C-alpha cells in the first residue's frame, strides 16, 4: 500500500465529516481556524489526567513522531477513559506532509477543542486505529524488510457518517 492510497483513503474519510470537500490537504474551515488561532492557549487549558507510555521512533521525522504519539494518546484515552499527558509540538504545515497533516490536526482538535469531540470521534478513531496501523507498517517497511504479514492489509471498517 502506498502513501498515495493512504492519503486518498484519509481524504475521503475526513471529507465525509468535514464541512466541505477539498482537493488539497490545506484546510480553512471553522475547526482549523479555531485551532490555529488559539493553539497555545488551548494547550495550556488541556488538563491531562494520566501518564502514557509511548515507544520512541528515532528514525522518523518530527511530524511522523507527532502523528504516532497522537494516535497512541487517542488509543490510551479510549482504553482508560482519561486524558493522557501529551507532548505538544509545533503545528505542522498543512501542505508539507500532505494528508498526514490533516490527521495530526484532527487528533489535536479532538483533544483541545471539546466542542468538536462528538464530530471528530469517528474520524479520530479511524485515524488512530485503522489508518495509523497501515501508515506505520508502510513507514517501518521502508526502513527494514517485513518478515511477517501485517494486519494492516486486512479489511477496514470505515465509519460512515
Concise synopsis of the structure shown:
This protein is mainly alpha-helical and 161 residues long. It has one domain (3-153). It has helices at 3-17, 30-45, 62-80, 99-112, 117-141.
Which helices and strands, and how do they pair?
Elements: H1 3-17, H2 30-45, H3 62-80, H4 99-112, H5 117-141
Helix pairs in contact: 1-4, 1-5, 2-4, 3-4, 3-5, 4-5
Structure notes:
The chain is an all-alpha fold. The chain has one domain (3-153). 55% of the residues lie in helices and 0% in strands. It is built from 5 helices and no strands. The protein has helices at residues 3-17, 30-45, 62-80, 99-112, 117-141. The longest helix is centred in the last third of the chain and has 25 residues, at 117-141. It starts with a helix and ends in a 20-residue tail after the last helix. The model is unreliable at 24-28 and 144-153 (pLDDT under 50).
Radius of gyration, rounded?
A: 15 Å
Helix-strand string: HHHHH
Structural class: mainly alpha
The helical percent reads 55-70%
Number of strands: 0
- Poorly predicted runs: 24-28, 144-153
Mean pLDDT: 77
Shape: globular
Structural domain tally: 1
Output the keywords.
161 residues; mainly alpha
Amino acid at each position: 500500500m502506498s502513501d498515495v492510497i493512504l492519503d486518498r483513503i484519509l481524504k475521503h474519510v475526513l471529507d465525509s465529516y468535514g464541512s466541505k470537500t477539498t482537493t488539497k490537504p490545506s484546510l480553512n474551515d471553522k475547526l482549523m481556524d479555531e485551532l490555529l488561532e488559539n493553539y497555545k492557549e488551548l494547550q495550556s487549558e488541556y488538563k491531562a489526567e494520566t501518564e502514557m507510555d509511548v515507544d520512541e521512533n528515532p528514525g522518523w521525522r518530527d511530524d511522523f513522531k507527532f502523528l504516532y504519539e497522537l494516535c497512541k494518546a487517542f488509543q490510551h484515552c479510549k482504553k482508560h477513559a482519561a486524558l493522557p499527558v501529551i507532548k505538544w509540538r509545533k503545528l505542522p504545515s498543512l501542505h508539507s506532509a500532505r494528508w498526514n497533516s490533516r490527521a495530526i490536526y484532527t487528533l489535536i482538535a479532538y483533544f483541545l477543542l471539546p466542542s468538536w469531540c462528538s464530530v471528530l470521534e469517528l474520524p479520530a478513531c479511524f485515524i488512530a486505529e485503522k489508518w495509523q496501523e497501515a501508515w506505520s507498517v508502510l513507514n517501518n517497511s521502508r526502513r527494514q524488510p517485513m518478515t511477517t504479514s501485517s494486519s494492516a492489509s486486512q479489511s477496514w471498517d470505515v465509519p460512515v457518517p
